[in-house]
Amino acid sequence: MITVKGRLEIRCSYGAPWQVAHEDSEPGEMPYHIILRGSAFLETPGMGAPRLLQAGDVVLLLHGSQHRLHDGSGFTPLPANTRDELNFSVSANAGTGDRLDMLCGRFVITPPHDRFIRDYLPGRLIVSTSNADQTLNTDTAAQLTNLVALMRGESSAQSLGGKAMLNALSAALFTLTLRLASESNDTPIGLLAMAGHPRLAPALTAIFNDPAHPWTLPELAELCNMSRATLIRQFQLKVGKSANAVLTDVRMTMAANELASTTVSTEVIADKVGYQSVAAFRRAFTQRMGMTPGDLRRSSHVENES
After folding, report:
1. Tell me, what's the pLDDT at 133?
2. SS in 3 state form for the chain?
């Protein structure tokens, strides 16, 4: 439903004291960090207390928010020198304290789909590949561990084609990190909690597979073998939104894809996502996406031409 592109940008090799600070990202950009060796403190203003990260931890800043990573010593960080290599950049300092080895990159989603991410996924997502007790499915943790090992190896080899390989692995990193988070015992409220809730899976599958169907709460409840009241309660508990709100958001996201990638008329697209009234579709789309269907189509064509 949403195309996510990934790219590895820099490999950091620091000895304490060190610090990496990131300002708010551009719309649709989501930084990520992978701790390969050593440890780091992560500070994300407004998103909880600082977290100690260890080797094997993967961090996604899904809202593109400002954040800071540091060694925790409190000393003035040493300056770092950055050099460009074949497939990415390498940043290193002259610190002699505990060393950090970290991969940093970002995921990119074309606006306005970043609205969906902000509404349904947490701003800060941390998963660990080194502590299987935190997950319900150690197979996913093993897959993510193997993927990180591939990224480590590819970023060390400096081979031809390495940039394309690392970017492809970055896109896979996004999927596996979300999957592992959905299987965690402390999954944050939102789409991940719903995806990891087997009783709600039939409703989620129905909405994504057939968004044009005029789904009713009784129909979705029947699919999940639960009462209407229980379905309403579970959606609010796990997702923080109603089933109708989720359905509308999925419809608008899929409509945005059609508007951006095809020349099909707005009337046809409205029908494909379940709206018999074009006026009603335009109102819903504008309210959800912050722009009219025509505005989105024009902006997408300008980007494609450039």
Report:
1. 45
2. CCCCEEEEEEEEEEECCCEEEECCCCCCEEEEEEEEECEEEEECCCCCCCEEEECCEEEEECCCCCEEEECCCCCCCCCEEEEECCCCEEEEECCCCCEEEEEEEEEECCCCCHHHHHHHCCCEEEEECCCHHHECCHHHHHHHHHHHHHHHHHHHHCCCCHHHHHHHHHHHHHHHHHHHHHCECCCCCCHHHHHCCCCCHHHHHHHHHCCCCCCCHHHHHHHCCCCHHHHHHHHHHHCCCCHHHHHHHHHHHHHHHHHHHCCCCHHHHHHHCCCCCHHHHHHHHHHHHCCCHHHHHHHHHHHHHC
